[in-house]
Amino acid sequence: SLAVLQALEDGLKKADADPSVKAVMICGENGKFSAGADIRGFSSPRRHGVALGPIVSLIESMEKPVVAAIEGVALGGGLEVALGCHYRVAHVKARMGLPEVTLGLLPGAEGTQRLPRLTGVPAALDMITTGKHIPATEALKLGLVDEIVEENTIEAAIRLANKV
């Protein structure tokens, strides 16, 4: 939603400007990272304001390390947010993918560029063209995530942020 995008942008800019902040951790709420955009919003008139692509680019360009704590799902735009992060920690039960392609939509926040940089072209093409969801264990093997945990994902992401 626009409110989530605006809050994310505001939080990133505030963290970047605060010298006491050494790293940023992005997580979802209630055990889910992000299932991406609500497709019902695609049929409404385009509103001015924040957009996902520039926010993902902002994440990627941050000088402070940004770590994604992925629980539940990171799908579509949610996965693109995670791809913009410098590091990704996923719960062992998490699933990731770009399912919007099954609706005839291409990932719109440069996920098609960032995914192959992490996984290599063959794996990225498979994910991009099929929309399949992959489990965290496969994501680790592909290089999509840096670490998987069975414990508290947020605490693990904070530990990683402090380490880097």
From TrEMBL:
GO terms for cellular component: peroxisome. SUPFAM superfamilies: ClpP/crotonase. Keywords: Isomerase, Lyase, Multifunctional enzyme. InterPro entries: ClpP/crotonase-like_dom_sf, Enoyl-CoA_hyd/isom_CS, Enoyl-CoA_hydra/iso. GO terms for biological process: fatty acid beta-oxidation. It catalyses: (2E)-hexadecenedioyl-CoA + H2O = (3S)-hydroxyhexadecanedioyl-CoA; (3E)-decenoyl-CoA = (2E)-decenoyl-CoA; a (3Z)-enoyl-CoA = a 4-saturated (2E)-enoyl-CoA; a 4-saturated-(3S)-3-hydroxyacyl-CoA = a (3E)-enoyl-CoA + H2O. It holds the Pfam family ECH_1. One of its GO terms (molecular function) is enoyl-CoA hydratase activity. In the C-terminal section; belongs to the 3-hydroxyacyl-CoA dehydrogenase family. This is Peroxisomal bifunctional enzyme. The lineage of its organism: Eukaryota, Metazoa, Chordata, Craniata, Vertebrata.
